[in-house]
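PT: before anyone asks, these are the final sequences, not the draft ones from last week. 379 residues across everything. Please model them as a single complex and drop the result in this thread when it's through.
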Amino acid sequence: MFTRRNFIKASALITAGSLIHPSSMFSQKTNVIKTGGRSRIQLTFRPFEALLRHPFSVSGYSRTTTPIVFTEVMYEGITGYGEAAMPPYLGESSASVIAFLQKVNLNQFSNPFELEDILAYVDTIAINNTAAKASVDIALHDLVGKLIGRPWHEIWGYTASKVPVTTFTIGIASEKEIREKTLETAPFKVIKVKLGTDEVTDKMLINTIRSVTDKPIRVDANQGWKDKHYALKMIEWLSDKNVEFIEQPLPKHNLDDMAWLTEQSPLTTIADESCQRLEDVLRMKDVFNGINIKLMKCTGMREANKMIALARTCELKLMIGCMTETSCAISAAAQLSPQMDYADLDGNLLISNDQFSGAKLVDGKVTLNKEPGIGVRKL
Ligand code: MG
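LR: through. Structure below.
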């Protein structure tokens, strides 16, 4: 007999069985599962490997691929898309993200508009796992935006035309490669440079770029300068070379020295590794001049939007950044960009096998479209 209890059991089996084979789950037709007449939210996921156009080197490591996990949430025949991107230094992997997602039971929720409660639950499943959490957050936002029929920047009341110009990042490379990469930055109005190795290399990078273009440069040291006096010397050297700001010059926990450096620095300082989540924002006041918000660090769009409000209260400048990720996560981050002073959303342009089409680069800006949710279509 097919009682309600048996039906719940059968639904649980579909979910549990699929969890064993995440890739097969992706194509499963379980869009509408109703329990007691109420629709339920279904989560599926699959691993993916993003291939980099060029090997990417920053202070400390180099790589040619980035592991990604794609998520989908389905509700009443509508699908929301999400993504977790895991650069190795953040400590997450495809295996850890899949292990986390296997614990997420969205099936207990029947109203996707209850984003606050659903995502608060997701955050309590385990500590850290911020990219895995972001993949659920992004997919749910995409779903809810589609159910409403509006993109998130409109739902939040943000003005699409206010998106700032975005940077294109040049990693650590040889002089010849830097010259070639600088020429590739033609569609961009601002260049981002990764420094933080040694003085000779850092100065070679800047001088080589300056031999090709006088476009503004934003510098990211990725915690590479270990001493505050050395960092100040480098910042002073950079300050007459049309550099807009310096991101994360010192190791992330060294906040006392960082406060001193910000006080002395002729350039604006921006926190990246030092500021991961909402709880870190208050601590950044008087330590940096601004913060770099990334969805993969802060668990997604919901918390990123809260960080904006708090950072503004603390008079911190705002930057939206990204990992190497597809147009799915980039378009989700772009929804927040009208509120930003600076954007660094080139992650999708660094890979050769994008799986989505979404926010596009127009006149040096990652430009928002009118599509609902996060504004993406699967390629
Ligand atoms: Mg950074």
